[in-house]
Amino acid sequence: MLTVDFDRLGLRPGDRVLDMGCGAGRHAFEMYRRGGDVIAFDMDADELAGVRELFVAMKEAGEAPVGAEADIKQGDALSLPFADGEFDRIVAAEVLEHIHDDVTAIKELVRVLRPGGTLAISVPRWLPEVINWKLSADYHNAEGGHIRIYTDHELIDKVTKAGRFNDGTPGTAMIFEGKDYAHGLHAPYWWIKCAVGVENDGHPLAKAYHRLLVWEIMKQPKVLQLAGKVLDPMIGKSMVLYFRKPETAGVAGA
Question: Which positions fall inside the Methyltransferase type domain (predicted)?
Answer without folding.
Answer: 18-121
